[in-house]
């Protein structure tokens, strides 16, 4: 074939190859245009970080609110104690006043008796004694009779003097007790007034923080809300070392899923110390209302390696959170706003435990 004849053939082949290339490009590229890759099943890292920060912020605000709630409850508990002290002081003051009135009446009566004996002793200018009885008597028998009468009078006089001294001392002691009771009453009254002011301020701060917590709750996504609403692992039956502790554990576990509510003591909702006091009340044991008081005087302190189901376990110093230990470093507790009563691990700020029963 000549070069002249081969030119058209080359052009045809080139055209065919070019067309094939175009078809190939269209064939392999068009699916990407018609069916894009499926969307990612997890949010981008930046979005995940934002969600985590939102949950962390929620927990941070909740912890602050819980501390404020505990301080508010503690102030209320302190106020009740001061009011009790004031009532006791008023009773002591009233008793002291009555004792003083009785002592004063006795003092007046015994003073009259003493005055009467004193008057008899110096009647007609002669002192009543055995010498005067001897000088004025007509016989030894008169002396004996008069001497005996004088002994009786002397005993009565001494008895009257003793009673008078006792009455005077009783009146002075009653006055001293009355003054102490007045001072204690005034101190308790002033402390109660200050606590009432503190309670109002703490309540206002608590309400503001609760509003922040609820606002932060609205920023959480469904997954984060589900995390809050999770009631923890199913731990099965929990065996406590004694009947009272068993009742408390069983009662607390029966509340799982019930909502948290600031200041609530059940049975429909709880805060942390409300749950523990409710559980032990069911066992017939009264413990203090607040986490701080429960740690201070709710039972016998126990070390972490000696924990048994039923022990109260605390977070913070002073304690602001409390739960009931159920074994394996787990506790049942009422965590905070937005979270129900649940099973969870002992917290990072674990600060001790006490055994109630």
From TrEMBL:
One of its GO terms (molecular function) is cysteine-type peptidase activity. GO terms for biological process: proteolysis. Keywords: Coiled coil, Hydrolase, Protease, Signal, Thiol protease. Residues 164-226 form a coiled coil. Residues 69-91 have a biased composition (Basic and acidic residues). Residues 242-357 form the NlpC/P60 domain. The keyword Protease applies. Pfam families: NLPC_P60 (PF00877). Residues 95-104 have a biased composition (Polar residues). Residues 1-34 form the signal peptide. Residues 39-52 have a biased composition (Low complexity). Residues 32-54, 69-110, 290-310 are annotated as: Disordered. InterPro entries: NLP_P60_dom (IPR000064), Papain-like_cys_pep_sf (IPR038765), Peptidase_C40 (IPR051202). It comes from the Bacteria. Belongs to the peptidase C40 family. This is Cell wall-associated NlpC family hydrolase. It comes from Prauserella isguenensis. The lineage of its organism: Bacteria, Bacillati, Actinomycetota, Actinomycetes, Pseudonocardiales.
């Amino acid at each position: 074939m000549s070069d002249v004849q081969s030119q058209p053939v080359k052009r045809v082949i080139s055209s065919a190859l070019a067309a094939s290339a175009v078809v190939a490009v269209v064939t392999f590229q068009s699916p990407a245009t018609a069916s894009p890759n499926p969307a990612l099943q997890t949010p981008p890292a930046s979005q995940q970080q934002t969600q985590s920060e939102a949950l962390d912020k929620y927990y941070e605000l909740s912890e602050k609110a819980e501390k404020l709630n505990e301080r508010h409850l503690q102030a209320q508990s302190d106020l009740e104690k001061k009011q009790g002290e004031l009532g006791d002081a008023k009773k002591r003051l009233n008793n002291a006043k009555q004792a003083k009135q009785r002592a004063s009446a006795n003092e007046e009566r015994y003073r009259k008796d003493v005055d009467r004996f004193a008057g008899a002793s110096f009647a007609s200018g002669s002192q009543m004694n055995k010498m005067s009885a001897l000088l004025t008597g007509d016989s030894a028998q008169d002396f004996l009779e008069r001497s005996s009468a004088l002994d009786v009078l002397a005993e009565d006089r001494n008895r009257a003097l003793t009673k008078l001294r006792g009455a005077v001392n009783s009146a002075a002691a009653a006055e001293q007790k009355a003054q102490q009771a007045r001072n204690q009453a005034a101190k308790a009254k002033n402390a109660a007034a200050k606590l009432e002011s503190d309670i109002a301020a703490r309540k206002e701060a608590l309400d503001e923080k609760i509003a922040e917590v609820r606002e932060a709750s609205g920023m959480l996504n469904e997954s984060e809300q589900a995390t809050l609403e999770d009631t923890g692992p199913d731990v099965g039956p929990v065996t406590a070392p004694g009947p009272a502790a068993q009742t408390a554990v069983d009662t607390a576990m029966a509340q799982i899923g019930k909502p948290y509510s600031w200041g609530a003591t059940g049975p429909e909702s709880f805060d942390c110390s409300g749950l523990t006091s409710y559980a032990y009340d069911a066992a017939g044991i009264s413990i203090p209302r607040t986490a701080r008081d429960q740690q201070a005087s709710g039972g016998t302190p126990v070390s972490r390696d000696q924990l048994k189901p039923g022990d109260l376990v605390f977070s913070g110093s002073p304690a602001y959170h409390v739960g009931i230990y159920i074994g394996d470093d787990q506790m049942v507790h009422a965590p905070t706003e937005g979270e129900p009563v649940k099973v969870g691990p002992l917290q990072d700020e674990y600060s001790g435990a006490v055994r109630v029963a």
